[in-house]
Design a protein that fits this description.
With 90 residues, this protein is an all-alpha fold. It has one domain. The protein has three helices and no strands. The longest helix is centred in the last third of the chain and has 32 residues.
C-alpha cells in the first residue's frame, strides 16, 4: 500500500467528519445541503482512492459512477422539494 494514498484516505475521512458537522449544525437548510454536497464529493474521491489501495480500480470506478448519478439525482430532487416548499409559504 502506498503511504500517500493511505494518508489521502485518512485526510478525506477527516474532511467528511468536518462536513458532517455542517450538516448537523447548519443554521439554514442551504448550509445543510452544501454539507451534504461536500460529503458526497469527498465520498466519490474516497471510493476512487480505495480502489487504488486495493488494486481493484475497475470495480470501484463502476461503484463511483453509480454513486455519482444517485447523488446528482438526489440533489436535484432536494432542490426541487425546497423550491416547491418555499413557493408554498406566504
Amino acid at each position: 500500500m502506498s503511504p500517500l494514498l493511505l494518508g489521502t484516505a485518512f485526510v478525506l475521512a477527516a474532511a467528511m467528519v468536518f462536513s458532517l458537522y455542517r450538516v448537523l449544525a447548519g443554521p439554514t437548510v442551504f448550509d445543510r445541503l452544501t454539507g451534504l454536497g461536500l460529503i458526497s464529493t469527498k465520498t466519490i474521491v474516497f471510493l476512487l482512492v480505495l480502489g487504488f489501495l486495493t488494486d481493484r480500480v475497475e470495480v470501484f470506478v463502476d461503484i463511483t459512477l453509480s454513486y455519482t448519478l444517485i447523488s446528482f439525482v438526489g440533489t436535484l430532487a432536494l432542490a426541487k422539494y425546497f423550491e416547491a416548499k418555499k413557493a408554498d409559504q406566504p
